[in-house]
Design brief:
about 250 residues, 2 strands
Length: about 250
């Protein structure tokens, strides 16, 4: 039985509100996954990415609401992240609509919100949202910048470079918070490991082998170092990406 068939609802919370224009799906395979040479490939990506950035706003805002006594500097960083992610939503909406897209035209996934908001403490949420999903975003955006540059799409290069600069700062403040928390209480490392395990299991149930195997990029080592990861962590991310390619057939 494939991972997409073993969907454990206990790993996911309620989804964020969406109006009637949008159709939410639970799994990657249920979305409009066009092949790379399809004329709608990039348009659909803009729509999906717009919604993922909205998830970023909603997750950061939910953590601000849920943990009012968190360290002030961390709360300020999360508030700035809300503003950054909201700007990304508008960026992707503009380019999506300017290239002929209509809101709600393609299905959306809200798995990031469902996974992250289901975690009960701030450390776990920042580990999964910022150090996992957003760190993966750094890798993806680096690849996307190179691809857009090869196509001569300067508008898209500029958009991705702006997005990447923000994502690096989001990962960096989370890394600082995680490292400081573990230094104060080494047992917090167990929380980190548990959160990553839960998120990884849930992610595989959403994406399945097909979705994970469609990933074409490796880790952006320079971007991850700039975002505050240690060298050993960066090398481990590269090794994991290579193993993922070998296991799921991405080329």
């Amino acid at each position: 039985m494939s991972a997409t068939q073993n969907f454990d609802p206990a790993l996911f919370g309620d989804g964020p509100a969406r109006d009637q224009r949008f159709t939410e799906k639970r799994r990657w395979a249920e979305c409009a996954n066009f092949p790379n040479d399809h004329p709608l490939k990039h348009i659909e990506f803009f729509h999906r990415q717009m919604n993922e950035e909205m998830n970023g706003v909603e997750n950061a805002a939910q953590s601000l609401a849920d943990f009012p006594d968190a360290d002030w500097n961390v709360r300020m960083s999360m508030a700035r992240q809300c503003a950054d992610e909201a700007r990304h939503v508008e960026m992707f909406r503009r380019i999506f609509e300017s290239r002929g897209g209509q809101l709600g035209e393609y299905p959306i996934l809200n798995f990031q919100y469902r996974i992250i908001a289901n975690l009960g403490d701030l450390l776990s949420r920042l580990v999964v949202q910022n150090r996992s999903f957003e760190a993966g975003g750094i890798d993806a955006v680096t690849y996307a910048i190179d691809e857009a540059r090869k196509r001569g799409d300067q508008e898209l290069v500029d958009l991705f470079e702006m997005q990447q600069a923000d994502e690096i700062t989001h990962v960096r403040f989370a890394n600082e918070f995680v490292y400081q928390t573990i230094r104060k209480d080494p047992r917090a490392a167990l929380q980190v490991a548990r959160a990553l395990t839960l998120a990884s299991t849930a992610f595989m149930q959403v994406m399945g082998r097909e979705g994970v195997g469609s990933v074409e990029y490796l880790a952006d080592e320079r971007g991850r170092l700039e975002a505050g990861f240690g060298l050993a962590e960066v090398k481990a991310a590269t090794t994991q990406a290579i193993q993922r390619r070998a296991s799921y057939g991405s080329h």
